[in-house]
Structure formats: C-alpha cells, structure tokens
Amino acid sequence: MNLYIINHKFHYELENLTRLFYPNEKITVIKDDKEISSPYIKTEISDSLTVDISIGDYKKSDKAEIRNDEENERKLCEMVYKILCEKTGVTPPWGMITGVRPVKLYRALKNEGGESYADDFYKNKLFVSEEKLNLAKLTEKIESKILSLSDEKSCSLYIAIPFCPTRCRYCSFVQASIERCKHLVEPYVKLLCREIEQTASIVNKLGLGLETVYMGGGTPTTLSAKQMSEVLKTVNNSFDLSSLREFTVEAGRPDTVTEEKLISLKENKVGRISINPQTLNDSVLNEIGRKHTSEQTLYAYDLARKVGFDCINMDLIAGLPTDTFESFKSTLDKVCKLAPECITVHTLSMKRSSTLTMDGTQINRADAQRARDMLLYAENKLKTNEYFPYYLYRQSRMVGNLENTGWSKKGFESLYNIFVMDETHTIFGCGAGAVTKLKDPYSGFLKRIFNFKYPYEYIDRYDEQLLRKNEIYSFYKKCLKTSQPR
Fold first, then answer.
1. How would you classify the pairing of strands 404-408 and 342-347?
2. Quick one: pLDDT at residue 309?
3. Rounded distance between C-alpha atoms, residue 269 and residue 474, angstroms
4. Mean pLDDT value of segment 322-350
5. 121 and 216 share a domain?
6. Partners of 214 in the β-ladder
7. DSSP secondary-structure letter at 46?
8. What are the CA-CA distances from residue 186 to residues 222, 232, 294 (Å)?
9. What is the per-residue pLDDT for 176?
10. pLDDT band at residue 358 using 50, 70 and 90 as cut-offs
11. I want to staple 252 with a disulfide (CB 3.0 to 4.6 A). Which of 42, 114, 276, 402 is the partner?
12. Considering 381, 397, 430, which residue would you say is the last residue of a domain?
C-alpha cells in the first residue's frame, strides 16, 4: 500500500491508521506525487484538505476546509478512516485511536472539558465504540485513585533480566535464550548489581522516594536462586526503601519456578509475582514455543501459595495461533477458579521481528473477531468474579486493533503498571534494554536515557553506558531551576 503525504507532516498517524485496516501489508510512505502507483492513499493539504484513495476497483475521494494543524491532522485521519471503513467493511473497536495509552488520552480530555466532553470526543471525533469507551472510563476511574499516591519526589525502578528458557514465537522482546547465552549470565549479574548501586546513589543524592520496584524481562527466574538473591539484595542494601509501596518480580515461565527461588524472593522483600500461563491448552503452548505444560503452571502457582505469596498475577493472551474461543474460555475459567489477585488479558500482537511474523503468519478478519469475542467473554467473566480493570494499554499490530488490560481484585492493583503507563514519574532503568525515563514533575517533559539493548553490548560497553546516567543530575538541576518563582 502506497501512502502519499503531500504538503503536510502527518505521516506517522496516517501510516498507523492505514495499518489498522491492512495489518499484513507493507505500507510505503511517499512524500511527493510525481508518480502515483496503485494501490494508494493520497492525502494533501493545498487550498483544502483532500483525500484520494484507489485500491483495486475501489476509488473514492473526499475534501474539507483547512483548519489549524491539530484539526487538520484529525480531519485528514477522519476522512481516510471513514473511506477505509466503507472499503473494508471493518469498524475498529477503538475507532481512530492508534496510540498506546487510550486511558491517559481520556483523562486528558476529561481534565480539559469534563466527562461529557471526553465522552463526546471519544464517540464522535475518534469513533470509539461504546464498549471500549466504557472500558476506558472504568479503568481511568480506578487508575486515578492510585495516581494520587505519587508526588514530585516519587520514582520507580525497573530491572531488566534479558534471558528466557526459549523464545516464544510471538515475542520480539527476548534478547537471549539461556541455552545460547548461559556464559553471559554471571558477568551480566555482576555488572547489573553495579548499575543498581550507582542508580541508588543518584536517587539518594537527589532525595527522591522509591515507590515501586519491578524486575522483568525476559524471565528473571531464569537466574539461579543465588543470582536472583544477589540482585535483590543489592536493591535492598542500596536504596532507601522507607517509601517503597510495591516490589514485583516476574516469575513468568512456570518451568523456571522452584521453591528455592520463591523463598529467595520472599526473603528479599518481594511481595508481588507473575506466573504466566498465556494459555492452559498444551497444544497451543507447543504451537507458540512454550516448553512447559499447563500442569507445570498449576504446580508453580500452588508452590507460590505454599511459600506465602498473597499477591499473584497471571497473564493470558487472546488470539494465539490455533487457540479457539472455547479453549480460551476454558483457560480463563480455570484461572478464575485459582483466584489469583490479578489477571492480565493481553491480545496477540504481531511484532515485526517475532518468529510468527517472519514465518508468514497473517491476521485475517476471522482472527480479529475471535479475539474480540475472547476479550468480551473475559470482561464479563472477570467482572462477575469481582475483578476490575486497573490499567490498559495498546500495541501496534494487535489482532483486531484491541488492547491489553490488567484486571485486579480490589486493593491488589499493580502500582508500577499504572505509573509506567501513565508516565506518572521518573522510572530508572537498569540492565540490558532498559530505558530510564526522566520526568520533569513541574512541566511534564520526558527525557529518555537508553541502555544498550543486547546482553553482550551491555557487558562490553558497560563503562560507556554508565556515563550516560550523569545526565540525570543536570536534568533534575534544570527542573528545580525552572520551577523556582521569578
């Protein structure tokens, strides 16, 4: 699909919008119209806003008056959206929203003009379905109570463990399977502990209060109990934890969970863990490259309860290859009987670098409808079992343009998940692929400091990486300076 962008700068949003309707196609952005090649979507600002679409035998055009930049972008998107809805017969449930944080957007609109204004904007300008509007509203209401816990001195810590037993076929995040990179784990842990110590020194000198710690990956429990304890002890010994509200570790792959590791987590003040089945259908697990069984998931869950964990999250994925509605329903019903404190329901996202995508798997309309049916069942089932949506986000290339939603029993919401999705305060990232996201508490400005992505880079260029964090001091110094009254 050729997307022509003529005399304007709105290519990013229009490209993402086009991808809602053509998720399997390469979209080529072209910024001149010297040679028009079908199929194409042509958008132009001259003496008016114009859209011209030619796809096979289908041809349609639209025109509108020029407005300000913000309205020009939205109006061009609206014209393209309505024509593609007509052409494809598809009406995306989130309407024209392509961004990651629809709840944050709803909150901003609500703060700007009130709830009725936000509702009207969602329904009549973004074309969000009643179903998704209601989900966003309920999630925003629950989130808002937790956001008030953070203040200008609050921060969180993310610790990345970029190793997994194997790479799942849908995953694009895992940098290294433990089978290939076992020799990197020990040096990685040593350097990670050094980075945690340096980060703690910065946090302590700035007088910030650590609210949440989240150790994710990858799969942190691919580390041995001794290695995990080393990392966790470094956190406990380096930071002032007097303001800490939550300490989470992902024990996501049940085949990596042992009693020794769980005890190590408890001894090091970890209060919240995730044990993620994704599905309890063994044939689907095999299809997606998970080298464990549903029985191992149930065993790991029981073991965590035995060790004393009273806050457990379980992740499920709607829309997995070969999974059916009945199979997903069975999985969710079984998980609800276990009664974990949190259940996160993801929608399959077809990432470019995932094995699924590279193997040629495509999203079709039946897949999208099946995933939507799965999420609707999950919403009804979880509400019946007194779970409430407490955070929500979206990813590109999601089956059916749907969403990921965290559901929680009252009082067990993951604070870190809310803080990171709302971009509430600074989050310091340690480890390969981690990003430190500095937030000016007075202006809302965000600055990112990236760690090297791969474990071997992280190890080989470690000293170079640490130098980047010197930028943190100058960032906060500037924040404090600009916040002073004139």
1. antiparallel
2. 98
3. 32
4. 96
5. no
6. 158, 248
7. S
8. 12, 15, 30
9. 64
10. low
11. 276
12. 430
User: DSSP string covering 282-339, please?
Assistant: HHHHHHTT--S-HHHHHHHHHHHHHHT---EEEEEEET-TT--HHHHHHHHHHHHHH-
Q: Which of 317, 390, 375 has its CA nearest to residue 350?
A: 317
Domain range spanning residue 18? 2-88
Q: Please give the angle made by the CA atoms of 264, 414 and 154, to the nearest 5 degrees.
A: 95
Burial 36-52 (b: 16+ CB within 10 A, else e): eeeebbbbbbeeebbbb
How far, CA to CA in Å, does 391 sit from each of 227, 345, 369, 404, 420?
31, 11, 23, 8, 10
Identity of the residue numbered 445: F
Q: Looking at the structure, tell me whether residues 414 and 286 fall in a common domain.
A: yes
| pLDDT value at residue 290 | 86
Flag whether 439 is in a domain.
Answer: no
User: Is residue 44 domain-resident?
Assistant: yes
Map tokens 């499920």 to a residue.
Answer: 316
User: Is the predicted pLDDT of residue 9 greater than 90, yes or no?
Assistant: yes
Residues 332, 410, single domain; the answer is yes
Token pair of 67, please?
A: 């407005």
125 CB contacts (<8 Å, ≥6 apart)? 74, 78
Confidence grade of residue 485 (pLDDT, cut at 50, 70, 90): very low
Angle among Cα 162, 165, 166 to the nearest 5 degrees reads: 95
191 and 134 share one domain: no
Distance CA 81, CA 77 (A): 6
- Omega before 218 within 30 of 0, i.e. cis: yes
Query: Do 262 and 326 sit in the same domain of this protein?
Result: yes
Residue 361 shares a structural domain with residue 338: yes
Q: Which two tokens stand for residue 150?
A: 């953070």
Q: Is residue 327 one of the residues assigned to a domain? A: yes
User: Is 426 among the domain residues?
Assistant: yes
Are 164 and 71 members of one domain? no
Closest C-alpha to 48, from 14, 87, 84, 8: 8
Q: What is the pLDDT of residues 53-96, one digit of tens each?
A: 999 999 999 999 999 988 999 999 999 999 999 999 999 999 99
Is 53 in contact with 59 (CB distance < 8 Å)? yes
Does residue 214 sit in the same domain as residue 304?
yes
> Of 45, 65, 88, which residue is a domain's last?
88
CATH of the domain at 323: 3.20.20.70
Q: What is the pTM of this model?
A: 0.93
pLDDT of residue 131: 96
Structure tokens at 9: 């700068």
Residue 14 is part of a domain; what is its CATH number? 3.30.160
The count of domains in the chain is: 3
